[in-house]
TrEMBL record:
Record organism: Vibrio amylolyticus
Sequence ranges assigned to domain ABC transmembrane type-1 in this UniProt record: 46-235
Recorded GO CC terms: ATP-binding cassette (ABC) transporter complex
Name of the protein in its database record: Glutamate/aspartate import permease protein GltK
Reported function: Part of the ABC transporter complex GltIJKL involved in glutamate and aspartate uptake. Probably responsible for the translocation of the substrate across the membrane.
Amino acid sequence: MNLRTLAALLIALLLTGCTDYQWGWYILDPTTTQGQTNLKFLTAGFYDTINVSLLSMVFAMLIGLIVALPALSSNIYLRAFNRVYVESIRSIPVLVLLLWVYYGMPTLLDISLNHFWAGVIALTIAESAFMAEVFRGGIQSINKGQHEAAEALGLNYWQKMQLVIFPQAFRLILPPLGNQFVYILKMSSLVSVIGLSDLTRRANELVVNEYLPLEIYTFLVLEYLVLILCVSQAVRWLERRIAIPQN
């Protein structure tokens, strides 16, 4: 724990101790029927939060890779396509994009779109631009000698990328990929505004019923904290697993 975190915790404890607020943690007491019901209701939001985040991450990686490749081309038009896409998408707030996908896309394309897939599509589009930059940076960081060696072996472009460049680049881009997944997990809380029953939506609904926002939103903070810490530890474990041993 660094000094800033410790200072923030101390300030929070002092402020809490200086108030006359009567905490109502009984609504989340696992030893009571009410507490068990409320806890079950809140934690059920993990399912939608994790699913929408995982699907968005996978699709964003696929689209990001497709968008990143033109940036590596010598064709000026392909590079221009990459820059236009990346800069345009990164300039749109995630919440605005989410609302446009949910309310605007069905009207524009004359389709039916539920809350879950609207969230996945919006997060995928928003994240794909960042993923494109992650892939571009990772691939460009590979020494040109690796490209030349692959070409000398007679590998075509796709064989070179698949067998030589991507495996090396993956080790380099794994940390930013982990950071982007954490970012998606946090941004997934925005899908609550379109009605998806994720962690945030369920917390909002319980606040309306119990009228104890401080306790419920504090528990919500702890839910996201535990979830993101678990993801961060998993990414660090994977980094160690694929790291090249240093002699």
